Amino acid sequence: MKASDFDYRLPQQQIAYRPKAQRQNSRLLLLNKKNGGISHRNFYELPHFLNPGDVLVLNNTKVIPARLTGKRKEGGEAEILLVQKLGEKVWECLVKNPKNNEEIHFEGGLRGRLLKGNEQDWIIEFDEQVDDYIELYGKMPLPPYIDREPEDSDRISYQTVYADKKGAIAAPTAGLHFTCKLLDEIKSGGVGIEHVTLHVGIGTFKPVKVENIEDHNMHGEYRSVPENTASAVNKAKAEGRRVIAVGTTVVRTLESSVNESGEVIAASGQTDLFITPGFEFKVVDALITNFHLPRSTLLMLVSAFSEREYIFRAYDEAREKNYRFLSYGDVMFIN
Q: What is the count of structural domains for the chain?
């Protein structure tokens, strides 16, 4: 298929630049993946559409304030986006106009040196361990389409309430709609809640620049499935109960951790799974997900989970009804 098959018009005014005042008040579009039926609700009504015995799987990654601003030796600012930790003082990074062996000076006396990595990758090697420094001086890495500077409030709003494992440079946005109270209500309805980890990185948001989507290379991202989650998911599948993924990152984590017998295994390591129409889902039965950018790998994944025609019809209706799109936007439940 072609990237243009996943294009659509996204009006600027429908991009959500800020979160809802109350997470659970996002709008919820319900899409029947088998017949394309659509209805409109609010996210706080989600427990009504879950069944006792369902297993809801969440991504417990935690976004780090990975944007650092430094000064170049010859003058001018250098904005560094830390992508992945490679060592105690070494990070893969994104930076505009990098120069090999260039020294960057940061507030508080920290220094870093840019080094050319493999292919198009760049590395920054700091003169000290920077985990604590990042928390103190870093800014939240809001997506480029949120056209404003990160604020202190984004450290809370651009983080799920169950975030636990540090390492993401973007939020698993489908999870942003949950509150602790809503999760308690879901549990009390007999739904099991399990966690996996996928540290959202370049692979998730890297744009598709080729027309033939089979030529797109996914950047690897760290994922982990604990033993208890694998066991709970396999038991649910064996008993005919639904496994519901909260976000495309959960889908990729689970579907990339399946053995030859179709069972989820406890696993950790890199995944570069790229899901497009025609993919055979072995684990996930239903999906909670935000509305995604045109021509993105995320839109391709949801178009694989249901009929592409149904997805685009749902997107058309969401635009007509003024849904909010992208990271801080509204949400859909495909089941």
A: 2
Q: What is the span of the domain harbouring residue 227?
A: 3-63+154-334
Strands 61-63 and 165-168: parallel
Q: Which two tokens stand for residue 300?
A: 């391709």
The answer to pTM > 0.85 is yes
Coarse DSSP helix, strand, coil percentages of the chain, rounded to the nearest 5 percent: 30, 30, 45
**Same domain, yes or no, for 256 and 117?**
no
Mean pLDDT for back-to-back runs of 10 residues, the chain (335 residues): 95 96 97 97 98 98 96 91 92 92 94 86 94 95 92 96 96 98 98 97 81 89 97 98 98 97 96 96 98 96 97 98 98 98
Is 49 in the same domain as 82?
A: no
CA quadruple 40, 42, 47, 51: dihedral, nearest 10: 10
Whether residue 191 sits in one domain with residue 80 = no
322 domain residue, yes or no = yes
Q: Do 198 and 275 belong to one domain? A: yes
Token pair for residue 55?
Answer: 């297993």
The Cα–Cα gap between 175 and 173 comes to: 5
Tokens 């993401």 locate to 168
Please check whether residue 146 lies inside any domain of the structure: no
pLDDT for 207 equals 81
In this predicted structure, what is the pLDDT of residue 319? 97
Which residues does 286 contact at the CB level (< 8 Å), separation at least 6? 33, 242, 243, 244, 245, 333, 334, 335
Predicted local confidence at residue 119, as pLDDT = 66
Longest alpha-carbon distance in the chain: 64
Residues 189 and 84 in one domain: no
